[in-house]
């Protein structure tokens, strides 16, 4: 019995460290790429590349969420293994009742190990959720700043064209007016594209934060369940 309990302690301690390591290894989102301005707006290939980068960031977020789900699944497996081992210990209880005090001391070690692993898991999940929120806020602010700068650059370009047109002949003024309209149109298209990307990103961040909060709640629930199981076993020994 003593050897089996020592094996459980080692297995649960290693599993707890592995779960903490998995929670810390979740990838951070890729940095936001700033668009380079071109004449009369932005180049189409730059906008396409920026949208592709946003898609990749969203894919990275989904991968991170999958990793957090894996951590929760590993926690559930740890609790199930603990239940099975405690059940086996209960079946052997009658045969070793004379050594009850010694076995109680051995059961206190799994109690402490499960508590430490569960606490570390909850802390890691909470820290990961905070990093996700901070990264999301920083990236959203960067995208808003880029959108505002794009609009201001377009306005400045339009004003420059207007000033040149006023100093030129009628033909130059006509060409400048056309260029100004195109600049306004391109600025509007850029603003709408960036607004759409920002809205999609905000939605993804909200969903990811919700899933991260759920992971923290699930981790707490599994730890509470493990405490309850071990407490029931200790109570049964006390009653005996």
UniProtKB/TrEMBL annotation:
Coiled-coil annotation reads: 44-106, 144-182
Query: What are the protein's UniProt keywords?
Result: Coiled coil
- Family annotation (SUPFAM superfamilies): Apolipoprotein A-I
Tell me the domain of life.
Answer: Bacteria
Q: Which organism is it from?
A: Bifidobacterium adolescentis
Q: What is the lineage of its organism?
A: Bacteria, Bacillati, Actinomycetota, Actinomycetes, Bifidobacteriales
Name by which UniProt lists this protein:
Large Ala/Glu-rich protein
